[in-house]
Amino acid sequence: MPSPDGTLHAITANRLRDGVVVFLGAAGAWVESFADAALLTEAEATTALAAAKAQAERDQFGVDLYAFEVESENGAALPVKMRERIRTLGPSVRLDLGKQAAA
Questions:
Q1: Triad 16, 88, 37: Cα angle to 5°
Q2: b/e map 67-85, b = 16+ CB within 10 Å
Q3: How far is 98 from 34, CA to CA, in rounded Å?
């Protein structure tokens, strides 16, 4: 459910083991695909981010955990800022690499 202003958020991190960009999924597990990321209201994202940071530190799982804004475009969730759009797809200089290569 979106925030009162309609904004949704997702949570991302880099996995320590291999540096892969991951997203917090609906079940609280980390997923590699943005399509599987949980979309949260701002309040939900704040609570989930605090818990995820604490757990990631205990498990030495990930770094650079943060929430980012997501918008709906043509019925699909899409990060608002270019930084997160690139993180969801992979390198922007070679479309044959990263997650966009599999699409």
A1: 80
A2: bbebeeeeeeeebeeeebe
A3: 13
49 CB neighbour count, 10 Å cutoff: 19
Q: Where are the alpha helices (DSSP H) in 1-103?
A: 42-59, 82-89, 99-102
Cα–Cα distance, 64 to 54 (Å, whole number): 12
Q: pLDDT per residue over 22-72, tens digit each? A: 999 988 899 999 999 999 999 999 999 999 999 999 999 999 999 999 998
The DSSP result for 44-64, as a single string, is: HHHHHHHHHHHHHHHHT-EEE
> Residues 84, 91, 103, CA angle at the centre, nearest 5°?
85
